Amino acid sequence: MKDIAIIGSGFSSLAAACYLAKYGHKVTIYEKNASVGGRARQLKRDGFTFDIGPTWYWMPDVFERFFSDFDMRPEDYYELIKLNPAYSVYFGEQDSITIEDSLEKICIAFDREEPGSSTKLRKFIKTAQDNYNVAIKDLVYRPGLSPFELITPVTVKKIGQFFSTISREVRKEFDNPRLISILEFPVLFLGAKPSDTPAFYSFMNYADFGLGTFHPKDGMYSVIEGMQQLALDQGVSMKTSSDVEQIIVENNTATGIIINGEEIRCDTVLSGADYHHTESLMQPEHRQYSESYWENRTFAPSALLFYVGFSREIKAVEHHTLFFDVDFAAHATAIYDDPAWPEKPLFYASFPSKTDSNAAPEGKEAGIFLIPLAPGLEDSADLREIYFEKIMTRFERLTNQDAKKYVIFKESFCINDFIDQYNSYRGNAYGLANTLTQTAFLRPRLRSKKVKNLYFTGQLTVPGPGVPPALISGKLVAGLIEKEK
Fold this sequence. Notes:
By secondary structure, the chain is of the alpha/beta class. About 35% of the residues lie in helices and about 20% in strands. It has 16 helices and 19 strands. The protein has helices at about 10-20, 60-70, 105-115, 115-135, 155, 160-165, 165-175, 175-185, 205-210, 220-235, 275-280, 290-295, 330-335, 380-400, 415-420, 465-485; strands spanning about 5, 25-30, 40-45, 50, 80, 85-90, 95-100, 215, 235-240, 245-250, 255-260, 260-265, 270, 300-310, 320-325, 345-350, 365-375, 405-415, 455. The strands form five sheets. A seven-stranded mixed β-sheet has the order 7-6-15-16-17-14-18. Strands 9-2-1-13-19 form a five-stranded parallel β-sheet, covered by helices on one side. Strand 6 and strand 7 form a beta hairpin. Helix 1 packs parallel to helix 10 (about 220-235) and helix 3 (about 105-115) packs across helix 4. The chain is globular, with a radius of gyration of 22 Å. The protein starts with a strand and ends with a helix. About 50% of the residues are buried. The model has no long low-confidence stretch (mean pLDDT about 95).
């Protein structure tokens, strides 16, 4: 039995803790903030409840697989509601396309936009489903130790999809720019432009159109609470308000951590905190990756988020609503190519109270607004206010309603908060983008190559950004630790 200290309590850390405790190890989680959850925390104010972090529940089979490893089911911990519609997309004033809860209904919507496109859509989703079966049921459960993990009889046949892009494949089949935007949208969860994302990642389109979009009652934080309970049932100890100041390294071996000046000895250190920050807790000679390495990575976006309480219900929107009424390419350039605050930002809005009565008092509405941003930008209260006015003015025009005058309160979260609360490198929100050169074994390693008994998990390592990959990352690193006991 090993004594294992885990830094951070996000999805990947909680998953790893559950597996390691199941294997018989003594596991303690140390969380910097006052509550568990990492970036998936919760804000409660004046009867409103908001998920601070993730708001989309995709790939339900990954969650089922996680809980089944402990002979449990998601419904043992939280209630899952399938959304219908899954989401809607605005392209202009009172001009939106609704994505419903089945491929059949989506095909009808596509044919309405581009006659005959449903045939092409079915073909595209069939390929996406094949990719999903290869990726999610097999490849992503490999620890990224070797390029040979990616070579199977099936992937050899799909090699071309690793060197083409989502954008290229979508545009081969579809001409309608609105449909193209909808088909390119899911890969944004991978943190990269569709033009930089390998075509193989079309499996995200199957996650969208094939599996559907869900909402856990009481929000995504109920998933954290379920995982926390599972971890406690496995015997995991959890300590909040415990900011790790240093990883103790002796003879090139991790032997403990320091919190508030106190040494806590252990056999293994596993960090689910920001990878760059974790390595900064050691002397430079023990770090695997230099500052120039991190500076040259392609990071997924950061975000400006607003949590808004409205005094009345908001109309003409779904639980999830996307606003693609401006040039996507220009906004993408401001994130990836020439970092700057976008002049005309795309944005996303979530209204959980459309589905969940616990999200807002009766007759009122909870709204979450998100603008993707390049990491590392200047962040100030004035800029946040400017961009709130920008998106709310457009929101009112596009949905043909007054909204600003019904705002009871708003709270914001942006780059400075990601740095302050999560030690996030340059304030990134989603980790490293899943580009071809940052896939699988080309991502930062789960196991340190310089310090023995030091491991990593989460969105900056294998398999990548997103909540389902975080669960998988926790399982992968726990397997490595158990294998090397």
